[in-house]
Amino acid sequence: MPRQATAESRRWTPPGPVDLGLVLGPLRRGPGDPTFRTASDGSLWRVSRTPEGPGTLRVALRSGTAEAQAWGPGAGWLLDRLPALLGDADDPAAFAPRHRLVAATHRRRPGLRLARTGLVLESLIPSILEQKVTTDEAYRAWRLLVRAYGEPAPGPAPDRMHAMPDARTWRMIPSWEWHRAGVDNKRASTILRAVRVASRLEEAATMEPQQAQERLELVPGIGPWTSAETVQRSNGAPDAVTVGDLHLPGIVGYALAGERDSDDARMLELLEPYRGQRHRAARYILLSGRTPSRRTPKMPRVDIGKL
């Protein structure tokens, strides 16, 4: 595919403030993510595998208006969904702060909206890679596999940007390449099961978030943590709170109640006043910067050669 393709363009003025970093930042999987790049001029680049094929999207905000260009077979698909990507389907007004810390962060971050990509696998696969390992290990695996088996980004994207592999290519990755990327058999097998039913999983992007999570969790190896992390991005789900996370319960407990040893049950209890908006509340809590000092070692790196 030619790197220099003709760009399609679109402008969209959001109805309220939008902070590109806050809205699209959760889509980036580490500083070396081949599918995401922040340019020196403040614009954001994304490469996605759409139902129409790979596409590169560049978005910048100019005087409150989003200006976007896109390249490749998926360009039109990406531009048609630009408003949803930037949170047009989101309803920030539905959120009411119930704690002083949350209210203060809410005031400081008026541009937070929840993105809706409309794409499931591009969030599901890296979420599976993040199961039970450090984020650095998961980011490395995603980076290596996408660069080795994905397609170079169409258009004038920054160097080394790639679209992730299609479902068939994921299925063709040899076992030793998963191993070389640091991915154990359990996570690799979960990804392989998911891509075998890729079209059924992609349908979840059009469902209500709870139904979407239930659809994803039909695949063995995909549980509530992974499904929530996925629909937060694919569906813009404001209530899909992440349970089963190593750090989030402690952060929520410390921020809202001064407790250092909260578990999932306690986190859900503290977030109950935000039911319907619990994921958004957790985002504001994380953005507040109020986190407990670490008292336990980080999750150890896993040597899959010893498994």
Automatic annotation (TrEMBL):
Alphabetical list of Gene3D superfamilies matching this protein: Hypothetical protein, domain 2
Protein name: DNA-3-methyladenine glycosylase 2 family protein
Keyword annotations: DNA damage, DNA repair
Organism: Streptomyces boluensis
Gene Ontology CC: cytoplasm; protein-DNA complex
Gene Ontology molecular functions: alkylated DNA binding; DNA-3-methyladenine glycosylase activity; DNA-7-methylguanine glycosylase activity
GO biological process, one term: base-excision repair, AP site formation
